[in-house]
Design brief:
The chain is of the alpha/beta class and 301 residues long. Helix content is 51%, strand content 13%. The chain is globular and about 75 Å long.
Length: 301
């Protein structure tokens, strides 16, 4: 099967290479010349323009987008649309907001261009482990693309599924990432508690390795925790600043809209926001209030 991929960053390049190894013809494009060069070094075809990318594919074509969510997706669709033909398929494998994916599918339908939203999990390890794929869109189109999903997944019958109509794939991936926030926060808090218990002089890397075998909290995230603590047990040189790319916010907003209690995911998002404030105004105000009503001491800089 022939596939064009737009966005050849590390994850996109690994996905393309995995597909190529399984016999699929892959042409890729990225506006960054260095990314195209690295792609070509892997033995894959790197087009130097969107027009060249589509020229290498015979209609009906499949174009897989691995670019940032939001305006970059809409801008790319606007650029691609005059070059596409009826029955071509656009696949969004990034972390788009599911309502945007529903809108794009509706807008492309009159042009007879199918839009498939694929929530993709696996990160930079997907090359070796395979990707978990949550697919949304019309069943007939998903069926046509099945060989691609089978090649990217951990196994043809494992780690991927058609979860529902347009938007469903990115909705499920959104919730997946919200859960991921909560899991990471729980590990972080637990290890911080053990690190603070100086009396026992705990070896956090040792404990992580113990938990990896047979424990009910074993997971891939724990594997990564163990690897991190092995190489840098004190986490030297790492700033306590945790970014977010939007999925946790969308998950919390959806929980509110649906009247679903999601305190763990919500608090994990708040913890990330809190990490970005090295001079918290709210904490300063709390200290001032304690001093005002109770005479409690205020620490000065």
């Amino acid at each position: 099967m022939k596939l064009g991929m737009v966005g050849l960053g590390r994850m996109g390049g690994n996905m393309a290479q995995r597909l190529a190894r399984r016999g699929h013809f892959i042409t890729g494009f990225d506006p960054d010349a260095h990314a195209r060069s690295e792609f070509a070094k892997k033995g894959l075809i790197a087009a130097d323009s969107i027009e060249a990318l589509l020229h290498d594919l015979r209609p009906p074509r499949i174009v897989w987008l691995m670019i940032p969510s939001g305006a970059p997706i809409d801008d790319m669709i606007a650029r691609l649309l005059p070059l596409l033909s009826p029955q071509d398929v656009l696949v969004d494998g990034g972390n788009s907001y599911y309502k945007d994916s529903q809108r794009r599918a509706r807008e492309l339908a009159p042009e007879r261009i199918d839009y498939i939203d694929v929530g993709t999990s696996g990160g930079i390890w997907g090359m070796e482990e395979g990707y978990s794929l949550m697919v949304g869109g019309p069943a007939a189109v998903v069926s046509r693309l099945t060989p691609i999903f089978e090649a990217l997944a951990p196994a043809p019958d494992l780690g991927w599924g058609h979860v529902g109509p347009s938007g469903a794939g990115h909705f499920v991936k959104m919730v997946h990432n919200g859960i991921e926030y909560g899991l990471m926060q729980a590990y972080a808090e637990g290890f911080a508690l053990m690190q603070r218990k100086e009396e026992f002089k705990l070896d956090l890397h040792q404990i992580a390795e113990v938990w990896r075998q047979g424990s009910v909290v074993r997971s891939w995230l724990l594997d990564l925790t163990a690897a991190t603590l092995r190489g840098n047990p004190a986490l030297d040189g790492i700033a306590p600043f945790v970014a977010d790319s939007g999925e946790g916010r969308w998950t919390v907003a959806e929980a509110i809209d649906l009247d679903v209690a999601a305190p763990v995911i919500t608090l994990s998002l708040i913890a990330r926001l809190r990490s970005r404030d090295p001079a918290s105004f709210s904490d300063k105000l709390l200290a001032s209030l304690r001093n005002a009503f109770g005479g409690h001491a205020v620490r000065r800089k």
